[in-house]
Amino acid sequence: ESDTASEISFQFTKHKKTPSVGSHSSDMASVSSVSGSVLSVYSGDFGSVDAQGTVEFALDYDEKNREFQIHVSQCRDLAVVDEKKGRSDPYVKTYLLPDKARMGKRKTSVKKRTMNPIYNEVLRYKIEKMVLLIQKLNLSVWHNDPLGRNSFLGEIEIDLASWDWSNKKLNWYPLKPRSLSAVNGVDHRGVINLSIKYVPPGSLGPKNPPSGEVHIWVKDVKDLLQLRPSGVDSFVKCYVLPDTSKKSYQKTRIIKRDTNPVFNHTIVYDGFHTEDLKDACVELTVWDHEKLTNHFLGGIRLGLGTGMSYGICVDWMDSTQEEVAFWQDMMSAANEWIEGLLPLRSL
């Protein structure tokens, strides 16, 4: 069925709320730091303030240093977040879209108690020009809250493929409400074709298998984001959350220069008791391989999507309706392959 099969043991202890996999990490503390590093990129809009005002900035590309530069000058007439005190503490944040996680965010310092902040700061991205030209710049303004519940004040998106790169002057732009795609996280990243099955302990004979097994057959991916003219060099990572240790980590081989890669790779995790299926989550992510860093293309999370794992609230138990239904079908049909075609998303 596949060119390679990986098998790994995934053990849970029953006397703890948090699972233990024998790793040197501190269970849930390590999970939150790893999963949260990606999830924090997609910070929510906690405020109910209407976007208003303008932002002044300039764009430039430094050919010598291969660096995209955003000169953030100032903002005017921003919305007031704290009505009682008549104040906002604004800062400016930027991403390169469609993949926020790939290049990461940049942000200015926070200017306190002003609706007309002056920054005069340069935000920089090390990126090749031809890659930059298939991106969009998302520049947004936020009120900084000490408790972390930052309020959205407005944004602007610029298609860098059509940008006039001879224009290096500071210009004013009106801040707009959040776009529908940004609010709903709607961006097409391709679809993954896979099959999964659960083999309960002892279902194939006495003590066969000795513990439950989850089989994941990664077949292929269609219509990946093309980051370079030559295509993408993609591979798939797999973890069974909450474990993010090396014991849980598996990956496919790299398929080069193909936006429709065929992997045909099977992974087997044993050590699964039936009750663990309610609290564990299989995370599959697709990445573009480069020498210095791998770029996130999209992923799925297969689980019940309850927001809880072993009695603890976790951000990563966030499966979509399609992903939940796929996982439930596997749980209700022991020893049967369940086939699915699921859209990749920003995790």
Characterise this structure.
This protein has 347 residues and is mostly beta strands. It has 5 helices and 19 strands. A hairpin with a 7-residue loop joins strand 7 and strand 8 (151-159). It is globular and about 75 Å long. It is found in: Cell membrane. It comes from Turnix velox. Keywords: Cell membrane, Exocytosis, Membrane, Repeat.
Topology:
Elements: E1 4-9, H1 28-39, E2 54-62, E3 67-76, E4 90-97, H2 100-103, E5 106-107, E6 118-126, H3 129-132, E7 136-143, E8 151-159, E9 171-174, H4 180-184, E10 191-199, E11 212-222, E12 234-241, E13 250-251, E14 262-272, E15 281-288, E16 295-302, E17 308-309, E18 312-313, H5 321-332, E19 338-343
Helicity level: 10-25%
CATH topology description of the largest domain:
Immunoglobulin-like
Give the tally of structural domains: 2
CATH fourth-tier homologous superfamily of the largest domain: C2 domain
Estimate what percentage of residues fall within beta strands. 35-45%
Number of helices: 5
Structural class: mainly beta
Protein name: Synaptotagmin-like protein 2
GO biological process, one term: exocytosis
InterPro entries: C2_dom, C2_domain_sf, SYTL1-5_C2B
Keywords: Cell membrane, Exocytosis, Membrane, Repeat
Task: Report a brief summary of the structure.
11% of the residues lie in helices and 38% in strands.
